[in-house]
């Protein structure tokens, strides 16, 4: 007899996963969240937007990429949700938007309730750190398409920004200062290269180099730092002209996206110390500096372009919020490029 369960879909396991994650998801609720008893949709009271003169909705979607493979191999599922939230909400923060709500999607070969609860619980915990509500999501079981221990995650978020407070290229001028904000590690980009190095070199996830606080595997699973509320604090204080979220493509390529055509960003390599994990990967993988620059954040997870007269106040605010930040470079006359010198 053919049944859904015989085909590999365990509905009871899915229901058990929902029960396990409920309390953690509830922590991410905002006052604007409205209960939908059916659970088919997430509801958000947009009358909260009436306080805006001209609200612009901002939206972003992303995944975690091949970092999920390392989480699977290490059997650690409670951090990957932080990576997902960071990748999505920090893109919204670049334009000055406050992240309002988020949804997630998990595809897996087999629903293991505890594993799914860890994944979604991590997403919910990170939403709390970002000040956004996790209003809904979906877990899909794909037997035969994915192996039982395989999974992938994706998410989307919506935010709002006042039209005349929109940050970006048009505010940036020569004489501005570029601030670097420390990453927590590799974040969620470059893991295809990381996995290649692990396959082709002697480096293993179990290694514990003296330069690291733990094993290579633990370092590689360090969750992405979430900058959204820090960025909003700078924006609301009138201390910033533009941000750049340093993701795939590296520091120079991402910062160039926030520059108008008439200026350059000159970034000084001696202004910060690159975290040791990047040097370990470079050494074992014989990775050239140019490839490191265009693949990894190298310790800079977000950059802020601020007026020169606001640099000290911006750095003080970051320090007050526990976010390591420093003067990374400056904006000069140019042609819209960011260069590391």
UniProtKB/TrEMBL annotation:
Belongs to the AIR synthase family. GO terms for cellular component: cytosol. Keywords: ATP-binding, Cytoplasm, Ligase, Nucleotide-binding, Purine biosynthesis. It is found in: Cytoplasm. Residues 56-161 form the PurM-like N-terminal domain. Pathway: Purine metabolism; IMP biosynthesis via de novo pathway; 5-amino-1-(5-phospho-D-ribosyl)imidazole from N(2)-formyl-N(1)-(5-phospho-D-ribosyl)glycinamide: step 2/2. Residues 174-339 form the PurM-like C-terminal domain. This is Phosphoribosylformylglycinamidine cyclo-ligase. One of its GO terms (molecular function) is ATP binding. HAMAP family: AIRS. It holds the Pfam family AIRS. Its EC number is 6.3.3.1.
């Amino acid at each position: 007899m053919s049944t859904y369960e015989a085909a590999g879909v365990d509905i009871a396991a899915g229901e058990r996963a929902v029960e396990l994650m409920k309390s953690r998801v509830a922590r991410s609720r905002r006052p604007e969240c409205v209960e939908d008893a059916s659970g088919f949709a997430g509801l958000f009271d947009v009358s909260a937007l009436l306080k805006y003169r001209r609200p612009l909705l901002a939206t972003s979607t992303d995944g975690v990429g091949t970092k999920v493979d390392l989480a699977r191999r290490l059997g650690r599922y409670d951090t990957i949700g932080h990576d997902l939230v960071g990748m999505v909400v920090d893109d919204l923060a670049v334009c000055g938007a406050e992240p309002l709500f988020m949804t997630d999607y998990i595809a897996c070969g087999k629903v293991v309730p505890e594993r799914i609860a860890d994944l979604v619980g991590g997403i919910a915990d990170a939403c709390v750190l970002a000040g956004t509500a996790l209003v809904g999501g979906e877990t899909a079981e794909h037997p035969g398409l994915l192996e039982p221990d395989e999974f992938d995650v994706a998410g989307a978020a919506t935010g709002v920004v006042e039209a005349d407070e929109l940050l970006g290229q048009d505010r940036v001028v020569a004489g501005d200062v570029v601030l670097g904000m420390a990453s927590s590690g590799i974040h969620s980009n470059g893991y295809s290269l990381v996995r290649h190095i692990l396959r082709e070199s002697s480096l293993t996830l179990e290694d514990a180099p003296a330069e690291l606080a733990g094993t290579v595997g633990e370092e590689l699973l360090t969750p992405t730092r979430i900058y959204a509320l820090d960025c909003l604090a700078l924006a609301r204080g009138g201390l910033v002209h533009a941000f750049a979220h340093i993701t795939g493509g590296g520091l120079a390529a991402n910062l160039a996206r926030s520059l108008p055509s008439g200026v350059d960003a000159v970034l000084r390599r001696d202004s910060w110390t690159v975290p040791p994990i990047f040097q370990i990967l470079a050494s074992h993988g014989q990775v050239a500096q140019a490839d490191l620059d265009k693949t990894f954040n190298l310790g800079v997870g977000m950059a802020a372009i601020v007026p020169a007269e606001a640099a000290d106040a911006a750095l003080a605010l970051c320090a007050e919020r526990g976010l390591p930040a420093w003067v990374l470079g400056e904006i000069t006359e140019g042609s819209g490029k960011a260069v590391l010198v």
